[in-house]
Amino acid sequence: MKKLLIEAEKINVFSDCSDKHFCLVTNKELKDLIQIKENNHFISNTIYTIDDEYNFEYILHKTLPDNACVLVISPYVFFESPPQKTLGNRRVIAMACNSTPTSIDDIAHFWECLVQTDPQEQQLKTDVFFELGQESQHLRFIDYKNNTEAVFMHMDESYLWSEQTGILNDGEQQLAPSGEISVLPINIQEFDKTLRLDINGTIALHGTPILHNGTPSFTREDQKRIHSNLSKISKSAIIATIKNGEITDIKATSPISQKAVDTLNCMFEIDSRYRILWEIGFGINKNIKLRAGNHAMNETYGAENGCIHFGLGLTPYTQYHLDIICPNMNVLTDNNTTLIGTPKKIKKMNILRNTQGNCLCTEF
Description:
2 domains
């Protein structure tokens, strides 16, 4: 099998790190499948392995040099982000590849997306997003194709906004490929079922689902089956009614998506917390090429002008966390400025006159 060649100098968030060591942290199962290209950009290039006994935090404290740029690719061992204060001068990026099945071919696909990601461009998009968002009293989520609209009162100071985007400095960490702005009603490490995002209306769940597993015991077969049922929404939408951040009703728009509706209703019945719209994510990575199947790294998909995804459930509290990427969704400010998505095309009228002076209108 051909090895995946890691050309670390192509990782743009590490481009100014010639005075640092490059460290690849992976699993023993992949050590013979990944190779670091020798280069003079870094002081050294080293591969480290982690397993259930020697987790990332152990490697971080015991082995990794303080002045290091670290890439984590760990599909076989869950990577838990270490506390920020423990990073020292290191920069850490981690590919999300444990919560969904991830092969070496999947890693190679998203590696190409990673090296094409421009942190400067992302930083600019992020700054504009927050600047426009702070000037608006509410955000409107509109799907013109499926005729849905919901209003999000996003200015609540108790909300937790998170940025996995843009420039990475020493002592910081980021998911890779980067490109997600998200909002939750509380810290992602906690789950209070009484808290809600203040969003009301209807949303169309129409696009690409990602089903992340949690830490309790599970089987990949169950995960695959559930994801397969939910994937019907890629062809036909589900319309969800949202009241105070909770799904109160879901309906299929055609028989194709009824299987997804049935599956979601089963999840609601087993654990009512799945009804909570726990996360709203704004993907802004235009270099992500969606990969067919259940892949966590699809999450930062931003098309050309940004893309919404909605998150239900929160691992490890629920068995799964479900993200649904909805490329038809537009997000507008209160003055109808398009924040996310492609602005709706308004037909213009070309006014002509015939020889009698009467108006003749044609669309263009």
